[in-house]
Amino acid sequence: MSLFGSHDASAGAPSFPAAASPLLANLNPEQLAAVTLPVGNALILAGAGSGKTRVLTTRIAWLMQTGQVSPGGILAVTFTNKAAKEMMTRLTAMLPVNVRGMWIGTFHGLCNRLLRAHWKLAHLPSTFQILDTQDQLSAIKRLMKQYNVDDERFPAKQTQWFIAGAKEDGLRPRDVEVRSDDDRKKVELYQLYEEQCQREGVVDFGELMLRSYELLRDNDAVREHYQRRFRHIMIDEFQDTNRLQYAWIKMLSGRTAEGRFEPSGHNSVIAVGDDDQSIYAFRGARVGNMADFVREFDVQRQIKLEQNYRSFGNILDSANALISNNTKRLGKSLRTEQGPGEPVRVYESTSDFAEAQWMVEEMRQLAREGIDRKEMAVLYRSNAQSRVIETALFNAAVPYRVYGGLRFFERAEIKHALAYLRLLENKDDDTSFLRVVNFPPRGIGARSIEQLQDAARAAGHSLHDAVSAVGGKAGANLSAFVAKIDVLREQTVGISLREIIELVLDHSGLIEHYKADREGADRIENLEELVNAAESFVTQEGFGRDAVALPVDELRQSPASQGLDPSLPVIDEPLAPDAETGETLSPLAAFLTHAALESGDNQAQAGQDAVQLMTVHAAKGLEFDCVFITGMEEGLFPHENSMSDFDGLEEERRLMYVAITRARQRLYMSHSQTRMLHGQTRYNLKSRFYDELPEGALKWLTPKNQGFAPSAFGYGGGYATSRGAGGGYSKDSFASPPVPPQKAAPSHGLRSGMQVFHNKFGEGTVVSLEGSGDDARAQINFPRHGVKWLALSVAKLTPV
DNA sequence: GCGGTCTAACTTTTT
DNA sequence: GTTAGACCGC
What is the extent of the structural domain holding A135? Predict the structure, then answer.
């Protein structure tokens, strides 16, 4: 079953005395082996709650403490800023070390650092700015309008997806395989988009990765420099890496002669991941990178961290049983030394409203038992489900916090302010120009802008530079805007970042505009917060202060750095000065980069003891005492859009696995017979994932539906209607996986093609039928309301 | 050019 | 049920 044999845990016999360091105290044998792995490439399969971050940080600390590497020889890559920060915080707590000398950060953050240091070689302007997803979309829309592309046939979103996807695979326009006329058009747009970005001096997220990959690929000296420097490379959440990120790691860690990859032998790459928690395939993540890594990096050591320190037995048994239904797995099973704990409670409600109501009651009970509200989390598959729950919590006056939604730097008013700031830094940033040229409104409408765009195109100028070409009233308004920007730019010389932002907020008219708006108070508050964000950024990054003394000498002397190219800069700062000129990014440019790379917190009010609401995706990496998984229904979870293909269903199952493993003590799952979705009532069957959980670990709070009649589904009568209180725990209960449902004799008397009448939807035609007993449902085409799935135990249908 | 109204869409999301 | 974007009339 396991792709890798069983030779793992004992693999890394420490070559340094383990007892010598208090760092290594209290590690289990597998963790110890991982922390003290000898030089060489290794894969660590780290299950949920197995102490992965602790292992990673302890290893870095141990390597430095034992003198095997200096801070400059470390490269640790994560996906989120949060994870990177967490790592640095824990590391500083372990060792008195200057973390700034280490390259710990997100893929994109580190790529940015590389490109800032070698901007010339990367063919970028020194002040290049970063487009976020929103900016990218508007840049593409603008491009498509300019070239009169039919946006019915090529929606901008789709083009964006195409471009991002190509970059994730490391493909430039000329590398993309063209299989249809549509492909050809998209590639053409990709090419034009690239030219536009280059002209405007901006890069998108994918470009950050791809450009730095090419930088390393095309410049032997640079590549070899970093290959020698980074003796120890560590990648977190390896299952989430895409093709390009994997190639980037390869490029940094080995030779690629004649297109062939050979591990360098003098550095170690340690990949940490969990294939069972791979839930980002939809955005290009490739779990296959794990197997490729083992093969291509000649991995000799694999360690499985299966000891779970988070959850009780029933919860882990549920997770293990569920995930065992997936076929493509490396093989791993969580174990705990805690007892079985509480059973997993399952609840069926009549409506989504009732489901939320029940949850509120249950939470009140939990609170009475002394559990903090911030230790209760409600998880759902899609954001649309949060509303009912929010309403119920709100009406019951239970404090709650919703994760997701707009982050600080993504808010419209913040984006507007940033657009002004970007124009100060780079007048050719047409995306920013268009965002604020008429915001606040100053009499520049679509017609004037079109004229301006035509003029700019004809002259090969940016919008800013083409303003003088437009005459009349429109031209006057445009000139006034440009003059305002140019004056602002002059005024910002020599003043602090804080003062720059205050100046811009004032002179742009943004504050004034929002003051006139009844609902502008929050926006003004956010704009004021922007000043604070800039202030704390300046303090943190050390702008305006002496740079922190960095262990440059140490780096140069250390064995890790031997053979480093002395002509290349030793980059120990996220925003290092240019090696040749000593020029550093202006605080403003640096802040804008920061804003793009770190979109800020996406939670409303922190601090308060509030129930946590979030999607399952957002919950990854978090843990709570009590977890409610809601909307356990076919079509919702697993989501209907992912059920068509096999891989999709397996990803949904992994998502379910992530959801289950968030819980420490108590886990609830609930589904509803009816649910309002997109303004329509839906009748969903309960999720197939229930059938993959060990009956013995569950406790049905409502009578378990008799819908899955044993005779029809071959369960051999293994299902009792309801478990007694306490929900007996039995190891054997999930020994045999459920048998897939078979066609049963219909008991409802409906057949495909039949005409039926529904009280609300009127007359319709039965299209198809599924299930039996209480779970039977019919797909019916109502001429006036479209095709619907109806649960026959709920919907009242009469044959016509 | 601006602001109001109507209509289609709408998993999951970090950088 | 909500929201963004298109469309239309002033």
Answer: 129-200
Query: How many angstroms separate the CA atoms of A361 and A398, rounded?
Result: 10
A349 Cβ contact partners less than 8 Å away, ≥ 6 residues apart: A355, A357, A358, A670, A671, A672, A673, A702
**Domain membership flag for residue A686:** yes
A682 included as an active-site residue: no
Interatomic CA distance for residues A674 and A513, integer angstroms: 45
A236 is a catalytic site residue: yes
A552: in domain: no
Q: Are A671 and A348 in contact (CB under 8 A)?
A: yes
A610 is in an annotated binding site: no
| A52 annotated as a binding-site residue | yes
Cis peptide before A440 (omega within 30 of 0): yes
| Spacing of A755 CA from B13 C1' in Å | 43
Q: Are A99 and A87 in contact (CB under 8 A)?
A: no
Determine the distance between A441 (CA) and B1 (C1') in angstroms. 9
Element (H, E) at A483: helix A472-491
E strand intervals along A342-487: 344-351, 376-380, 400-402
- Please report, for residues A40, A128, A141, A230, A534, the alpha-carbon distance to residue A223 in angstroms, rounded to integers and kept in the order given: 20, 22, 36, 11, 34
* Domain count within chain A: 5
- Residue A48 annotated as part of some ligand binding site: yes
Which nucleotide lies closest to A618 by the C1' atom and the CA atom? B13
Does the pLDDT of residue A319 top 90, yes or no? yes
Render pLDDT for A7-17 as a digit per residue (tens, 0 to 9).
434 444 444 54
The domain that holds A436 is classified in CATH as: 1.10.486.10
Q: Which of A237, A342, A348, A429 is catalytic?
A: A237
Burial class (CB in 10 A: 0-12, 13-18, 19+), A177: exposed
pLDDT higher at A405 or A490: A490
Å: A152 CA to C8 C1': 21
